[in-house]
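ping. complex inputs:
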Amino acid sequence: MNIFLQATFEGLSLGAVYSLVAIGFVLIFRATDVLSFAQPAMVVVGAGIISYFSTQIGIPFLFAFFLGIILTGVLGLILERTFLRPMVGEPVFSVAVLTIGIDILLRVVLDNWIGINPKYMGDPFPSYGNFGSVNIAGLTVKYLEVTALITALMLIFVLSVFFKKSKYGVAMRATSLDQEAALAQGINVGRVFGLVWFIAGLLAAFAGFFITGGFNTLTNTSFISALRALPAVVIGGLDSITGAVVGSLIIGLTQAYVGYYQFDIESAYNIKLGNGFSIVAPYVIMFVILIVKPDGLFGTEEVERV
Amino acid sequence: MLSVQNLEVVYQDVILVLRGVSFDIPKGQIVSLLGSNGSGKTTALRAITGLLDTQNGDITKGKIFIEDEEITNAQPSKIVQLGIAQVLEGRRIFSELTVRENLRLGGFTANDSIDENIERVFTLFPILKDRDKNTAGYLSGGEQQMLAIGRALMSNPKYLLLDEPSLGLAPKLVQQISELILEINSQGVTVLLVEQNANMALKISSHGYIMETGNIVMDNPSSKLLQDQDVQEFYLGLNAEGTERKSFKDVKHYKRKKRWLS
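pong. complex structure:
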């Protein structure tokens, strides 16, 4: 039972972090109809900026953290303005390929900076108490995971209020529903796109810290963790924020359960799944769900004339 | 006065849609713009409100003025701020948003007066007040049209461009909408009415323009247009004597390529 609770908690926390990346995917997809493949790169770039400020420049961690988040948001804004704004009205496929280009560009620059030694975040969690974790009723709860869960929940709450109440939040929803009608209301659609990329950047940087923080480090392969938000959005449906959150939780829980129970399953059925199957398992889940519901759990079914 | 001078619009760099269209909308009046499908009415509206970009269209010649300010190729948000609001063809309300959110978006450029404008829209369309918190997509066709018009009024427009407000509505609702247009006009909003329903449009407007394949082919006070033989035959479905309705079979035989006033 304890193992089950432990796995559930870790899975939820992991899923909450993935959901931040996934929401970024969904926001950009809804606003511009493009799946931005640059999102995982934004995650690691965010982590890189935080790490640079807190360990190399040496400013206090909290300042570095928020500076990194804001700067990643601004980076999103700049990318949208320079690369994506001129592509408005071009075929979706071209724009998607362009985002792959941005992804490669960002990662090459970052990998060059990382080099061969892993980068640390300089965050307070590793030294905190008993190796950054505490025992609650037999569960080993990492501070980083608790913080990740709470932060993600708060961000999702703030976002939902933003979309319901604020002028630009409602304008963003309207733009994703009908661009031309939004233009006719005098909404500056270009500014809305910029804002979407800014928010996606902020969320990516938050996720970047939680993926690479604590005892985890920022390495050349960190972006693979961020990439796991992609099956999450596919499971949830590309155009639903609720779907993104649910999909992320499914992915996080799957990964945690498989991680904890893989050995039991293997010995019970006398099979060999191989090392690190927990990382592959989310994609298996995605496969199964896509067979049953091709548009994802919460996605709108696309009606297209053949 | 909103004035369009010698406007030429090309879609996709090759399709010439407007071939030198000029018309004036004097302040305080209702002007109607009639024409069959594909004659360029909607394109003319898009050119005025700056929505050609999304359709890959360009203004290649001509100018558009509001009062004395040129607004050719201006940003849509600036045009809305200058006091031109467009009700798009087919209503185009934000279906997943509530009625109130739709109205708030209409007032995107007139943020200070949102509350009083919502009150104004609710007095014009009391039905919307009851539907305040409903999802706009679940409103009936007539209510959606009222919402679309109300949304356009939220930006305090001096000029209201209506693209086929009678589209897909029952005759009784068309009557109601036309009364509302008169009411809006009496509050000091100048209206440009683009319509297929020529009967309704000419009855409430003071002046009418008729378009065909990208040209203005006729331009007369509405009362005169209502008396015109060609208009009667083409738009009002009356035969040359104006006494008896033509059967559908005969209408089909009518030479559609006929040029006006030739």
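Residues 93-156 of chain B form one domain.
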